[in-house]
Amino acid sequence: MSSKYEALPRDTLGEVVRVYRSNLEIWLDKCSAALAAMRYLEKIHGEDAKQEVAIALRYAQATKDAEAIDAFEIIVTCLEREELQQNRH
User: Fold this and answer.
1) Is there a contact between 34 and 53 (Cβ–Cβ < 8 Å)?
2) How far apart are CA 26 and CA 33, in angstroms?
3) Which of 71, 88, 85, 89 is nearest to 30 (CA)?
4) To 10 degrees, the CA torsion angle through 7, 60, 24, 18?
5) By the 8 A CB rule, do 48 and 3 touch?
6) pLDDT at 6
7) What gap in Å lies between CA 62 and CA 28, rounded to an integer?
8) Is the whole-model pTM more than 0.70?
9) Helices 49-63 and 10-27, interaxial angle, to 10°?
10) pLDDT score of 32
11) Using CA atoms, how far apart are residues 24 and 38, in angstroms rounded to an integer?
12) Integer distance in angstroms from the first to the last C-alpha of the chain?
């Protein structure tokens, strides 16, 4: 894998996907689950978490990991939506 994909350790990627999936069962709302997964990632990576998500999505796409692609696409979309809402206020 090229260095443009190397950010989160593979086990952390899997853990973020696991947190997303388990929260999806609780929230039944993709964005709530995605934001919960993002809070988990922020605990690990702090301010760099948003950048890490974009890299993780590219990595998931490169490795064709459908479960990770789904989770990180939702996380990215929900973060963008949340950011737009914050900018409106």
Assistant:
1) no
2) 8
3) 71
4) -60
5) no
6) 57
7) 28
8) yes
9) 100
10) 92
11) 13
12) 41
